[in-house]
Design goal:
heterodimer, A: about 200 residues, mainly alpha, about 0% strand, rod-shaped, B: about 130 residues, alpha+beta, two-stranded antiparallel sheet, 5 helices
């Protein structure tokens, strides 16, 4: 860098010397262009060339590249947006799933509670019916025992009465005299006549 | 041989012809038997059985069979006859029949009716 400055200073010194040498032959700018070898047509041709190259590069290189970059940028932004939407949907779906699971758990718990309640009611009902049936059986057994007891007492009473009557008949057959029978017959006649 | 409906109806009509003032008349019965003998029925035996059954029932209504244990006097029989005649509104004749099983007392049978006042009957009532 420092060497370039030295070269530039040297060139500038040479230019000053050349200007002093030539005098009034040329103005400052013209002198500079001449000193530096600047040619206007050449510069114009360079500008034209540069413009043509720039236009071609813009049309066939930069523009497609920019379009591709825009498209990629758009795709990336769409992808990010889609990812965000998917994340939001995923979150929503997770929340919905959680809500559904919770509702299902509540329903299942409710069903279990109802089943337990029904089972308890059924058990209570069966127990009550069993108790009633047992009470009925007990009552019927007691009634049957009482009936059997009464029947036995009646049979015993009948048998005793039969024995008493038979004994009485035998005693009366031996003990009643004709006079007693005649007296009884007269009483019976009066009784039958009064009917 | 069982009597059919027509034979029973004829026996009933003959039986009605045999009554005079509600009492079986021997003359009427003789006439009925003569009629049966003269005009042969298609089933004479069945007719006569049905007729005999009705006459026997009617005669039984006019007869009081008095079963008794121990002695019974004629006055007692007459008293029973009078009571039954009054009850059935027809002449009833009493006949005595000893029955020692009664022990003491009477049992009077008029047709299918039975009246009893006996020691055996009262004892039987006790034994039931």
């Amino acid at each position: 860098m420092f060497s370039h400055l030295l070269i530039l200073a040297e060139v500038t010194g040479h230019a000053a010397d050349a200007a002093a040498a030539h005098g009034e032959a040329a103005s400052g700018i013209t002198k500079i262009t001449q000193d530096f070898g600047i040619s206007v047509p050449f510069i114009l041709a360079q500008v034209l060339n540069f413009s043509v190259v720039a236009i071609l590069l813009w049309k066939f290189a930069f523009k497609p590249v920019l379009a591709t970059m825009d498209e990629r940028q758009k795709r990336i932004s769409d992808g990010l947006k889609y990812a965000e939407e998917m994340q939001a949907k995923l979150a929503l779906t997770q929340s919905e799933s959680a809500a559904i699971i919770k509702a299902a758990q509540l329903d299942a718990q409710k069903a279990i509670d109802e089943a337990r309640k029904a089972a308890k009611e059924f058990g209570d009902k069966q127990q009550a019916e069993a108790i009633t049936r047992a009470a009925d059986l007990l009552t019927k057994a007691q009634q049957s025992i009482e009936l059997e007891h009464k029947k036995m007492l009646n049979e015993a009473r009948s048998e005793i009465a039969r024995l008493v009557v038979k004994t009485t008949e035998q005693v009366l057959a031996k003990k009643l005299s004709d006079a007693d029978r005649a007296s009884y017959n007269e009483a019976a006649t009066k009784e039958l006549s009064a009917l | 041989m069982a009597a059919d409906k027509q034979t029973k109806l004829l026996a009933k009509q003959l039986f009605k012809l045999s009554l005079v003032n509600g009492v079986v008349s021997p003359e009427q019965v003789t006439g009925v038997l003569g009629w049966v003998e003269k005009y042969a029925h298609r089933r004479p035996v069945a007719l006569l059985k049905a007729y005999h059954h009705r006459i026997a029932l009617e005669l039984a209504k006019s007869r009081a069979e008095v079963e008794h244990a121990g002695p019974i006097s004629d006055a007692t029989l007459r008293q029973i006859e009078a009571a039954m005649t009054k009850r059935y509104a027809r002449p009833v004749t009493a006949t005595a029949r000893p029955n020692a099983k009664l022990l003491a007392g009477l049992r009077v049978r008029v047709g299918s009716d039975i009246y009893e006042s006996s020691v055996a009957g009262q004892l039987a009532t006790l034994s039931v």
